[in-house]
Amino acid sequence: MTIALDQNRPARSYREVTRWDRLKTNRNWLAIWFMLPAAAFLILFLAYPLGLGVWLSFTDARLGRDGVFVGLENYEFLWDDTTFWLSVFNTLLYTSVASIIKFAVGLYLALLLNERLPFKAIIRAVVLIPFIVPTVLSAIAFWWLFDPQFSIISWSLKKMHVITTNIDFLGDVWNARASVIFANIWRGVPFVAITLLAGLQTVSPSLYEAATIDGATPWQRFRFITYPLLTPIIAVVMTFSVLFTFTDFQLIWVMTRGGPVNATHLMATFSYQRAIMSGYLGEGAAISTAMIPFLLAAILVSWFGLQRRKWQQGENND
Amino acid sequence: MTDFTRRALVKGGTALGAAGALTGPALLDWAKAWAQNAPWKPEKGAKLSMLRWKYFVQAEDDAFVKLIAAFTAATGVPVDISRESYEDVQPKASVAANTGTGPDLFWGLYSLPHLFPQKCMDVSDVADYLGKTHGGWVDSAVKYGKSGNKWIAIPICYSGALINYRLESSKKAGWTKFPTKTDEFLEYAKAMKAQGTPGGFALGHASGDGNTWVHWCLWAQGGQAVDASDKVIINSPETVKALDFAKNLYGSMIPGTASWNDASNNKAFLAKEIHWTNNGISIYVAAQNSAKDVAADMDHAYFPIGPVGKPTELHLMYPILAMTYTKYPQACKALIAFMLAADNFNPWIQSAKGYLTHCLNEYDKNPVWTADPKTTPYRDVAKRSLTAGGLGSVGEKAATAIADFVVLDMFANVCTGREDTKGAIAIAERQLKRIYR
């Protein structure tokens, strides 16, 4: 229906079909109308705060007070700020080490859970526990485990006469980094494992049967069937995993507050400290904004990767 | 949130007699009489809301709730109390001051009112009235309360941070009393560590315990972050001396203090892992309940005095302020004055068991300070305290420097060996210059 009848004109005269008429009835545009509520939601709650954050980073806003535009002043200050660069280093270290180990352990667990095991359902549920426990609770538990005086780990090792003094888990720079990375891995492995397990179950058993008949070893079956078919889901899981790890806040804040001497400050915790604790909203926003390029890079890698058929259908199919 | 309705009051009435000189009906009668004589008459239909720091000692909050209930009964003004961890009061108050809506009264930490002095109600009349009727204000309270010539907040109390130490092990190391000079303190710490009873100060991001001891240490050697005109002077030989002192001291501390937060030293002291530290009276209070042997074998002492020759302690101050946007300024003033009236304040400060210290001289007489001699040092913290920012102004800049752990990180950098003295001072100087520009 593209013609509208206008009652006021003499009979037989038809009104022009306006663009609006077309828009109202066009099926393709209908989709746009249906998407509008979702788009409004995204703009209001995602794009606007993001834009506001970027804008704040160009102002000298203080907590509870509007700022004026200062250009790149916040970034210039951060450029020479050793603590800022330390937090960048910490974030990259934290993200890369934790993500790689989470992937390795997660994949191993997924393969294990994909085998025929007794009590499979229960074991799968148990694996999810670290993911279900609220982060703050698990962080507090780790804080106790790593306490300089009351650590159960130090206590046990001392009783076994392995060590004579307590291990300074959170007070020594590298110990502290290792401790928070361990806590993050513990928390992140189930997500990787369960998602990869879901991916594994979509692999058709007939492929394995065919390979077995051809005399493939277990390693070959993994290398040439499981791995290529799993790549798309690996890309998605690892993107999420990297994003979550990169923006981690709670674990660090509860366990170390960025200490000792800022050795575990991530960009997220450092931004919070400068923006909310000290009230330098503009500077805190600049630190947060500085995270965006890294996050975009992580997203782009998986995005372009997923576009390529090689990733989706195996090595030699471009 | 605690909302005082008449019913809640009737229910609470029976419990009112638990602590303090005045019991149930007597307290109400007194409150009514006070309200009739007070210079401030709450507006008709007034309602107040208050955001306060979250209590550390439950009994203190109970006593406070009673006090507010009596106010409501006497004046008919309901008061709505909400509580936040003391670090979180500041952001909320800043936003309220900026937007012009929120609780009428904020009770926060350090220099909170100085973040937005023009948004704080002038309470000079309340301060004068209280000062006159209760023996005058201590010096540091005047500095915290006044902006220019007018009072923008009323300093309610301090939370003292003093030395906590074990008696038996100190005696064994040759010290019957805690050392009073910084040099002696260094020897003491060495001797204590040598005999396997070390102590420790927090070097992690501990807002209370960490900041109080590093500022004491800096000031004791004559170092200052800024001078009286807020010019950054951290890069000085005195600061170097303070950092060297701290590094020496750190060598005699228990390992692990670089990760300590505000709760760590409490735990370690109660578990007999450390034998000296700095803290409020909460360790002693907790020990009386759960570790009576520790309570019997511990005492409190002032921080040792350094080369500058006078006390250089920093204690936590809790001022209360009323926002200019409140619709009921008279009610706000009446409530603040009511909180500090002797018959209210005495039982309340007593219920805090020494955790909180008054800023009005009259309350030196409160029996809480003499009933148990171990609490006596905390009586004087308001008189001994310097203000946030040292020589410099009490205000937003000083508050920011403390909240951002500038001095604390400088000390931690040196003690843990991450930076040399020069490097650590340079980092702190750069940050301070930005804050104080």
Structure explained in plain terms:
The complex is a heterodimer of chains A (318) and B (437). Helix content of chain A is 70%, strand content 0%. In chain A, helix 4 (82-114) packs antiparallel against helix 11 (218-246). Chain A has helices at residues 19-25, 27-56, 73-79, 82-114, 120-127, 129-132, 135-145, 152-159, 173-200, 205-213, 218-246, 250-255, 267-277, 281-307, 309-313. Chain A has a single domain, classed as MetI-like fold, CATH 1.10.3720. Chain A is flat. Chain A has 318 residues and is mainly alpha-helical. Chain A contains 15 helices and no strands. The model of chain A has no long low-confidence stretch (mean pLDDT 87). Chain A starts with 18 loop residues before the first helix and ends in a 5-residue tail after the last helix. In chain B, helix 3 (58-75) runs antiparallel to helix 15, helix 5 runs parallel beside helix 14 and helix 19 packs antiparallel against helix 20. Chain B is globular, with a radius of gyration of 22 Å. In chain B, strand 5 (146-147) and strand 6 form a beta hairpin. Chain B has two domains: 2-159 and 315-372, D-Maltodextrin-Binding Protein, domain 2 (3-Layer(aba) Sandwich), CATH 3.40.190.10; 162-314 and 404-435, Periplasmic binding protein-like II (D-Maltodextrin-Binding Protein, domain 2, 3-Layer(aba) Sandwich), CATH 3.40.190.10. The two termini of chain B are 40 Å apart. The longest helix of chain B has 18 residues, at 58-75. The model of chain B is unreliable at 1-21 (pLDDT under 50). Helix content of chain B is 46%, strand content 12%. Chain B has 437 residues and is an alpha+beta fold. In chain B, strands 1-3-2-4-12-7-13 form a seven-stranded mixed β-sheet, sandwiched between helices. A three-stranded antiparallel β-sheet of chain B has the order 9-8-10. The chains are: A mainly alpha (318), B alpha+beta (437). The A-B interface holds A 62-65, 77, 80-83, 147-150, 165-166, 168-173, 176, 256-263, 273-274, 276-280 and B 87, 90-91, 93-99, 115-116, 203-205, 254-261, 264, 267-268, 271, 273-274, 396, 399-400, 403-404, 409, 412-413, 416, 418, 427, 430, 434.
